[in-house]
Structures are given as C-alpha cells and as structure tokens.
Amino acid sequence: MLAAYSQWLLSKRADGWLVIDVHGPMQRMLAAKRAADPAFTFVPDAIHPDDAGHWAICRAILAGLGVSGPIATAESPAALAPFLPEVTARLQILRDAYLAAAGHLRPGVAAGLPVAEAAAEAARLTASICSRRLHLAGFQRSGREWISALEWPRPKVVDPGPAAAGPAAVPADAIVLLGKDLSAWNGADGWKVEDGVANVGTGHITTKQGFGDCHLHVEFRTPAPARGNSGVYLMDRYEIQVLDSFADGSDGPLTYPDGQCGALYKQQPPAVDACRRPGEWQTYDILFVRPRFAADGSLEKPGRVSVLHNGVAIHSDTVIKGDTFYDAPPSYTAHPDALPVRLQDHGDPVQYRNIWVRPFEPVQPRPKLD
Question: What SS3 class is residue 13?
Fold first, then answer.
C-alpha cells in the first residue's frame, strides 16, 4: 500500500507538486544495509524510526531539495551535528510558545514566550542555520584546507589614520598580559622581549590565566616587507586573524576575505580593511561574549564578538559559529567558562606589545526597597 501511495504522490510532480521521495531512497538504503546484515532495521519497535532511520529520512529530504556534497552523502548524522543545537532550540521555542498560547497545562514547566517574540527568535535562528549550511557545504582542498561554499566580497579599504605615538593607556582595572615581559604566558621560552616588544618565536603561547567574557586589547606590528601572519585566539579556539592586509593585494598576494587581517578566521571577513602599512603599530580592541553550553554539553547560545581595528569597527556583535578551523567547517565542542588567550606562531616575525584584558560582567539591577 505504501509503495502504491508513494507512486501516486510522485505522479503529482507532473501537476507541479513539490514531492520529495523518502520511501524509495529509504527502501534502497535498507536493502543495502540488509545485504550485509539481514536483521538490520530502521524501526526496532516496528513503529518509531531510530537514529539511523531519521538520518535516512534526512538524507532523502536533502537529496530531494538538491543538496549535494559531503552533507547529503555522509554515512553518519555527525555531519549535521553543528546544526542540531539551533534546530532543537528553534523547535522548543516555537513548541513552548504555541502550547502556552493555547492554554495547555504543563505542570512544572515554564510558560513559553509570547508567539510574536518566539517567531522573531525562530526567524533569527533560521537565518543562522541557513548561514551555517553554506559554511558546511564546502570541500577539503588537497586533503587539508576547508573551502566553504560562501563567496565574500572584498572589504573596502578604510584609512584608519596615523598610529599613536606610543602604546595605549592601560585601564586601572585591566590585567596586563604583556607589559615588560611574558611572565603571564605559558610556552614563551622561545619568544624574545625587548623594551616591552615581544617577537614571535618558536611555538604558540597561551596565557596562564583563563578568561571568558572580556575586553581584550592587543597591539601588533607585521614585518616589512614580508607579509607577516599570526593570530589572536579567544579561549584558545576562536581566532581573529593577524596578517599584513594593507590595501590588500597591493603589496603582495591577494588574501581571501575571511582569512585577511581582522577576519573571524574562515567565518566572517572584517566589514572593512582598516590595516596600516607593514612596519606600523596596529591595535585590536576585542569585545568578546563566550558561548554558553547546557549541562549536557549542547550549545545554548553561540559566542559573539565585536572588534575595533585601529579604532575602526570591523565586527559588531558577530556570531561565532564554532572553532575557527583551517581544515574543517566551524563547529562547537563544549568547554569550560574560562580558557586562555593564545598568540599564534605562524613562522613570521610579527611583534606584539601592550596586551591587556578586562574580564567583563554587566551590572545587574536589584529591586528597590521601600
């Protein structure tokens, strides 16, 4: 009966219906599985599909929508793991809102948002999911670098003005990470410091102290005439690129936008190219909100970052889609609330000075007492 019904539905494509064949692909997948294991089934209780069954349904829908590449052909649902936290959150937000609006009694369960607020949050999550799809629908070039399906426009060049005469002032409540030496860092034996200027040496270095939400100030200088490359990693995993991208391409190879100076690496280019010439001091002021994870390790809220490069805004509340990998699409792994800052050794003589951080905690109101 199901086979006959499936054939009837498929025949309606001729009438302009959008019909995705799930039954046929699942039957073919089931036959392939049973060739190796005659007892294999997608429905162990004869009613409800298990994880493998849901994955088979998902693959059939992806194929029907024209999605190709590693996502649609993977043998494991792990390929879609980066989607699941936001997909689940969207489902729960809308479900709870509709149940609350209908007056459904759910003892011990908090009421959902008003429907309008839930719809707005669901729309935001939908946009994020669609963006993440394009990040994932890429390929690995030469077995290493991950190339996403996104094509970014070249950020326009903005002259940030001349560099300051010296290092920026340090706020009274800041934790100095690089002042006169690198005593606040691990792994710094291979780096040299002269007059408060640290020269990238052998190996990455990480702060001895961990940080979460914070304002991080970094001053750096790329070498001239070589194109220096380094990076500032928030929580040891979310990179803001350091690179000579002055008037990008005018003094060397053109850099891909989501890998140029100021990029949230491989995720989001800077809004503008605010670089100074190589050999001149530059600044980052990074406002970072760490991701939030649930007790089971799932993502509750993604991280966010705003960045001023030489005083020019290049990121404003940019959503971090996960670790900034070179050889894989972004994805989150649950981690502690505080982790070190990392400076990258990319083999180039980049210099750093005057690095400080202010852990950030917003002021919370309290009720007035009569």
Answer: helix
Cα–Cα distance for residue pair 79/252, rounded to 1 Å:
37
Under DSSP, the state recorded for 81 is G
Query: CA-to-CA distance for 241 and 344, rounded, in angstroms?
Result: 10
Give the separation between CA 300 and CA 193, rounded to whole angstroms: 41
Residue with tokens 């009837």: 8
Indicate the fold that domain 152-359 takes in CATH: Jelly Rolls (2.60.120)
Q: What three-state secondary structure class fits 187?
A: coil
CB of 231 within 8 A of CB of 344?
yes
Strands (E), 82-174: 139-141, 145-147, 156-157
Mean pLDDT of each 10-residue bin along the chain, 370 residues long: 83 89 85 91 88 84 76 68 78 90 78 92 85 72 81 94 96 97 97 97 97 98 89 98 83 81 97 95 98 87 96 97 91 94 96 98 87
> For residue 68, what are its two tokens?
């190709």
pLDDT of residue 262: 98
| Token pair listed for 336 | 């502690």
Strand partners, 206: 186, 342
pLDDT for the residue 252: 61
Residue 336 is predicted with a pLDDT of 97
**Which of 132, 127, 138 minimizes the C-alpha distance to 83?**
132
Instruction: Give which of 361, 358, 363, 353 is closest to 173, Cα–Cα.
Output: 358
Contacts of 42 (CB under 8 A, 6+ apart): 26, 30, 49, 50, 52, 53, 56
Kindly list the domain boundaries of the chain, sorted by start residue: 2-66, 82-137, 152-359
